[in-house]
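User: My advisor, Dr. K., asked me to get a structural model of this assembly before our group meeting. I'm new to this, so sorry if the format is off. These are the inputs:
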Amino acid sequence: GAGVSQTPSNKVTEKGKYVELRCDPISGHTALYWYRQSLGQGPEFLIYFQGTGAADDSGLPNDRFFAVRPEGSVSTLKIQRTERGDSAVYLCASSAGGLYNEQFFGPGTRLTVL
Amino acid sequence: DAKTTQPPSMDCAEGRAANLPCNHSTISGNEYVYWYRQIHSQGPQYIIHGLKNNETNEMASLIITEDRKSSTLILPHATLRDTAVYYCIVLTEGGSEKLVFGKGTKLTVNP
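Assistant: The format is fine. Below is the predicted structure of the whole assembly, which you can bring to the meeting.
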């Protein structure tokens, strides 16, 4: 079946602009996770949803970052007033929820802020 | 969640077993050990997890010491496609499901 998909695969923007990154989870998965990965580093947790609500948003670096999942399926990560330091690969994962269910990752969106 | 320590890199010959160690000396009784790997330019992939008993699946085996302070991921017959960064992660039962990735171990399988 279809895995986790993310769009766009690449996004180039200018400093100060607003961007939206989309994640389509595996059908039926109730949990959805956002991570970001800078070059040479492991993925860094941002936020995860259980259904429509954010269960843990402790990884969002500041109030320029916001994520929604209004219908409990597709999620959008929104970044306002982008900065060059926001350049990274943004990874989305989904799972059936719960500690014992593996997270399935998408291919990521590479964001470059010029 | 307990902190984990892994060697930064390891090499293995194709066809041989790859044994990747992880130290989690502060692990608590309700914390599980998870392993994920990340092949270059791909998202991470789940491998295996365990609490205290040894576990095996089609990808790997996980050996956890009796005191649970360390574990070893074993790839029994490594192939070139197993070249990746391997992450050992500890998750708490009843806690957040977020994965905290360290720097992992870069495993290179050589022909």
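One thing worth pointing out at the meeting: Chain A touches chain B at residues 4, 31, 33, 35, 41-45, 48, 55-56, 58-59, 91, 93, 95, 97-100, 102-108 (CB under 8 Å).

User: Perfect, thanks a lot.
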